[in-house]
């Protein structure tokens, strides 16, 4: 594989640490978005270590570690975590143990960004596939419903704008393509401090009535600490009253799979030809379908669990991988399943990771691996 994404560090560039790279990646795909079975995050290494280059790959294997050693690279960014379950021993009895041992011996950090990068609409794995297929009107196929909360607080009317801005800057108030979203109502608040109080308005041991604004705004639950900190810093009261309400709302920006549309509908044979060319595929396993293709559902990696969602979205085709034999029958002629292979469905993810890093650190050196880690071969 030709390495077309190699860059070199500018001599005058400020020192970067592993945590700087991780923080930027997790601005796009926070660790809180990963599935419960996943193990995304820093697997080996120290967050505070300086990083010279990063080797970006789909899987971290012994060959990947050897490549990092030969290129004097001390950070590997992989899509798939090398460790999914806890290791009780490190004896080198399998490729996972040998890979970890070699990384530790050579002081190489391994970071994985897996289902959290799968589960975002903006700059996510599935969006990258959709880009290759030139799809429009992208939406999450199965949005998450446990990732949002609402903050309700009460602020003196003259201080409401300052508090709102602090909350928005901390990440609150974002709904779809909109930001700075809040609802505000005016009312009267009452309070009486004791002899140990130092009230913003009024006097200790005297009942005070204050014209207040009730501010309501939504925020991602993983930002709770940051949101509360911003509230406390900006709010003028000695004791701040607020409520946090967990929401069951579906989050349109976070979830599994996506669905989009082709610019023009295509015949099945034309779509399959385009799919194979656009994704550089050797083979496509697909089910019989007769209607024109317009709406396309996508899930990088193992996506059979989303077939019902693809059908509900009225997609004509579902592009994913790892369907079992009997699961192909579930299409029942209502949708075309296109199983392109696990590695093949996620092959553009390293390219995506490099693009994210380069947007923030223009002079840093992410290197696209030259090692093909696909364990599946095809014989013709």
Judged by helices, strands and strand pairing, the structural class is alpha/beta
CATH topology type of the largest domain: Udp-n-acetylmuramoylalanyl-d-glutamate--2,6- Diaminopimelate Ligase, Chain: A, domain 1
The overall number of domains is 3
Largest sheet properties: 6 strands, mixed
Distance between the termini: 21 Å
Known CATH architecture of the largest domain: 3-Layer(aba) Sandwich
For this entry, give a set of tags:
380 residues; alpha/beta; Udp-n-acetylmuramoylalanyl-d-glutamate--2,6- Diaminopimelate Ligase, Chain: A, domain 1; 3 domains
Report what the structure shows.
- The protein has three domains: 18-117 and 348-368, Udp-n-acetylmuramoylalanyl-d-glutamate--2,6- Diaminopimelate Ligase, Chain: A, domain 1 (3-Layer(aba) Sandwich); 125-142 and 255-340, Udp-n-acetylmuramoylalanyl-d-glutamate--2,6- Diaminopimelate Ligase, Chain: A, domain 1 (3-Layer(aba) Sandwich); 146-249, Alpha-Beta Plaits.
- The protein has a six-stranded mixed β-sheet.
- It has helices at residues 18-28, 62-70, 95-105, 115-118, 125-133, 160-169, 224-234, 268-278, 307-312, 342-345, 349-360, and strands at 41-44, 54-57, 75-78, 109-112, 136-144, 148-156, 183-191, 208-220, 242-246, 251-266, 285-286, 293-302, 317-321, 336-339, 366-368.
- The chain starts with 17 loop residues before the first helix and ends in a 12-residue tail after the last strand.
- It is globular, with a radius of gyration of 25 Å.
- Helix content is 26%, strand content 27%.
- Helix 1 (18-28) packs across helix 11 (349-360).
């Amino acid at each position: 594989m030709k390495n077309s994404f190699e860059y070199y560090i500018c001599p005058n560039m400020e020192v970067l640490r592993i945590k700087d790279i991780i923080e930027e990646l997790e601005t796009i795909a926070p660790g809180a978005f990963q599935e419960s079975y996943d193990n995304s995050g820093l697997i080996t290494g120290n967050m505070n270590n300086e990083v010279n280059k990063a080797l970006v790959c789909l899987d971290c294997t012994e060959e990947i570690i050897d490549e990092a050693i030969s290129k004097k690279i001390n950070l590997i960014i992989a899509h798939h975590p090398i460790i999914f379950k806890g290791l009780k021993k490190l004896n080198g009895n399998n490729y996972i143990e040998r890979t970890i041992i070699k990384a530790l011996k050579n002081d190489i950090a391994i970071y994985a960004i897996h289902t959290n990068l799968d589960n975002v609409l903006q700059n996510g794995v599935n969006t990258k596939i959709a880009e290759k297929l030139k799809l429009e009107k992208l939406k999450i196929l199965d949005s998450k419903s446990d990732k949002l909360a609402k903050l309700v607080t009460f602020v003196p009317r003259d201080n409401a704008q300052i508090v709102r801005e602090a909350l928005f800057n901390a990440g609150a108030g974002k709904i779809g393509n909109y930001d700075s979203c809040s609802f505000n109502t005016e009312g009267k608040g009452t309070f009486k401090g004791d002899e140990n109080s130092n009230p913003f308005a009024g006097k200790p041991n005297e009942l005070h009535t204050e014209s207040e604004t009730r501010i309501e705004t939504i925020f991602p639950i993983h930002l709770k600490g940051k949101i509360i900190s911003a509230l406390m810093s900006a709010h003028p009261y000695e004791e701040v009253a607020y409520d946090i309400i967990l929401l069951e709302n579906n989050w349109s920006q976070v979830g599994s799979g996506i669905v989009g549309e082709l610019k023009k509908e295509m015949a099945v044979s034309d779509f399959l030809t385009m799919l194979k060319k656009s994704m550089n595929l050797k083979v496509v396993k697909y089910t019989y379908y007769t209607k024109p293709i317009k709406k396309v559902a996508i899930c990088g990696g193992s996506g059979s669990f989303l077939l019902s969602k693809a059908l509900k979205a009225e997609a004509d085709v579902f592009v994913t991988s790892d369907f079992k034999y009997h699961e192909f029958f579930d299409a029942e002629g209502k949708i075309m399943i296109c199983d392109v292979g696990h590695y093949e469905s996620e092959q553009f993810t390293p390219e995506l990771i490099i693009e994210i890093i380069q947007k923030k650190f223009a002079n840093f050196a992410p290197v696209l691996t030259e090692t093909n880690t696909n364990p599946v071969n095809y014989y013709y």
